[in-house]
Prior knowledge:
The chain is of the alpha+beta class. It contains 10 helices and 10 strands.
Amino acid sequence: MLxxxxxxxxxxxxxxxxxxxxxxPAKLNLMLRVVGRRADGxxxxxxxxxxxxxxxxxWIDVRDDGRIRRVGDLEGVPEQADxxxxxxxxxxxxxxxxxxADIRCEKHLPMGGGLGGGSSxxxxxxxALNALWSAGLSEDELAEIALPLGADVPVxxxxxxxxxxxxxxxxxxxxxxxxxxxxxxxxxSVSTKDVFSHPDLTRDSKxxxxxxxxxxxxxxxxxxxxxxxxxxVRSALGLLDPWGGRLTGTGACVFAxxxxxxxxxxxxxxxxxxxxxxxxxxxxxxxxxxRVAAQTAV
Length: 298
Ligand SMILES: C[C@@](CO)(OP(=O)(O)O)[C@H](O)COP(=O)(O)OP(=O)(O)OC[C@H]1O[C@@H](n2ccc(N)nc2=O)[C@H](O)[C@@H]1O
Ligand SMILES: Nc1ncnc2c1ncn2[C@@H]1O[C@H](COP(=O)(O)OP(=O)(O)O)[C@@H](O)[C@H]1O
């Protein structure tokens, strides 16, 4: 888990030189309703995704020998289970490309935090390799390959803040305010699978509209279960009470919105020193879209 003292904060914005890195931004779920369950066990959701300017960074070298390799380790994730490797294999299969890749991922996003880091790494790998291999797949085709890798991967392929339905594959871009967020990263990892299989999870929320959300309906149906099962999340949320703290996805991260960076930073400064957290800006457009445009212009 990365704390606030992390010197390698990966943000994007004015004056940030990306070099050869491919950004993989985090997301927040600004609300999340569980509105049904499909025959295959997956849950139907309504959610609003917004990107934030906190990113993992990937470096990818094309190989001529067709091998796909992860460079470096990721604690608890074997190479063949790594979503970057699985994404590259899926793209190679779908495109029939004979090339390979060495993939290095510099993690800045906590795993199992509800920030979608692994999903974003997978999406960035798909988008980057589609360009680097000149595979020529469309955005729709990439989104189709993305979904079996994880319900959250398509939104990172599209790279836009979105109103989402289904399991997250039906996406409508939305223009939202772009506040500053204080994100707290409790020292625990929440399993998405465990939350969705919990007997007490609400699974029949009524459908709402984008207008309802805009008027302040920001319920997260996973919250009661996560708050009960994970004391670290419960206490982090309590700390954000004065600013209306929310859970992102199935957690473990919690967040609150502020009108300015200085107010968000001041609130972070009031948090216990041992609790990890960071300040990031909400974004409606992913830096990945600019990075791929720069690549294809070369
Ligand atoms: C809940 C959300 C909201 O954005 O975020 P996270 O908190 O995980 O970041 C996502 O829908 C998560 O997407 P993702 O993390 O890609 O989940 P997946 O790997 O596809 O699913 C992990 C497991 O959770 C369950 N699952 C997931 C999504 C869903 N709509 N219904 C489910 O029942 C399934 O048991 C699945 O095997
Ligand atoms: N490159 C990767 N980065 C992060 N997690 C990965 C990666 N590859 C596989 N995983 C697995 O995916 C799980 C979910 O990761 P992540 O997307 O970061 O969390 P969340 O779905 O809660 O937002 C991790 O706990 C890990 O086991």
